[in-house]
Specification:
- It contains 14 helices and six strands.
- Helices cover about 45% and strands about 10% of the residues.
């Protein structure tokens, strides 16, 4: 199946960099979605990203699931009005193991096919990277003006959080950008995908690749719409009212009731996006 056309039909395509669709005409594409392991379970807000990886693999392309053991220690400011609590390394290791088990229910990690899924952890390449080396080699590539122009930064600096934004969270987009650069160089990963709130972080990665390696190196970005709560706010591991994929956190009955109680105007979108397993051709036969 055509991966981009499948996303369009499902309503799972929010933004896409020019040239992304043509990339899939050149052969097997390696793409990744990043997940911060700030809890030991995924929630339904992750389902669109996970299903994008699943559809990518079904279309014959290679999915990478990046679990942010390093960036999880900082916290993504996107969509957040407050600074996150920082987790210790032991807690993050536990969360990574739990999330990998959940992802294995959606993605094929075990086969010997060329497009078998891989789980990567950015702690593996960040743990020995010194601050001075990162500042010299990566920090000089992206200007502060560029980083401050991102919506996730501007919202925080314009009063959404009374405490502003720490330097720790300000550097998040640069760290995520380096993840893309690393996977581009080591895994031939040309595409990063994520929720619509990640557009700024993802495009920082494409810009870093261009500035670090040269303009002839092409990297792409693609985002999907967010699954939101009734009040329109995004689901997050540190937020109230989450619907988790772990039955110990959200019972099967509660999980079922969430989908049963969505509005009629949302029902078709949810059936086609996070819940559907059948392809467009299968759907047409039903």
């Amino acid at each position: 199946m055509n991966f981009v056309e499948e996303l369009k039909w499902r309503g799972m395509l929010h933004q896409m960099m020019p040239g992304t669709e043509e990339l899939f005409d050149k052969g097997m594409v390696t793409a990744y979605v990043g997940i911060d392991p700030t809890a030991d379970s995924l929630h339904i807000g992750h389902l669109c990203g996970v299903m994008m990886l699943r559809h990518l693999q079904r279309a014959g392309h290679k999915p990478l699931a990046l679990v942010g053991g390093a960036t999880g220690m900082i916290g993504d400011p996107s969509g957040k009005s407050q600074e996150r609590n920082l987790l210790n390394e032991e807690t993050l290791r536990h969360n990574v193991a739990c999330i990998k088990e959940q992802l294995s229910r959606f993605l094929d990690f075990e086969s010997d096919a060329p497009n078998a899924a891989e789980l990567v952890n950015n702690y593996d390449w960040m743990k020995d990277y010194t601050f001075l080396d990162f500042a010299r080699e990566i920090g000089k590539c992206i200007t502060v003006n560029y980083m401050m122009a991102k919506d996730s930064v501007k919202r925080r600096l314009n009063g959404e959080c009374s405490d502003g934004m720490s330097f720790t969270e300000f550097t998040y987009q640069l760290l995520q950008g380096y993840d893309f650069l690393h996977l581009y160089q080591t895994k031939n990963c040309r595409l990063q995908m994520g929720g619509s709130d990640q557009w700024g972080n993802i495009t920082t990665g494409t810009e870093l690749i261009r500035r670090k390696l040269g303009s002839e190196n092409e990297a792409y970005a693609l985002t999907c719409p967010l699954i939101t709560k009734a009040d329109g706010k995004k689901f997050g591991k540190t937020e109230q009212g989450n619907v988790w994929l772990d039955r110990q956190r959200t019972s099967p009955y509660q999980f079922y009731q969430f989908w049963l109680n969505v509005g009629d105007d949302e029902a078709e979108r949810y059936i086609k996006t996070p819940l559907a397993e059948c392809s467009r051709s299968d759907w047409a036969k039903k």
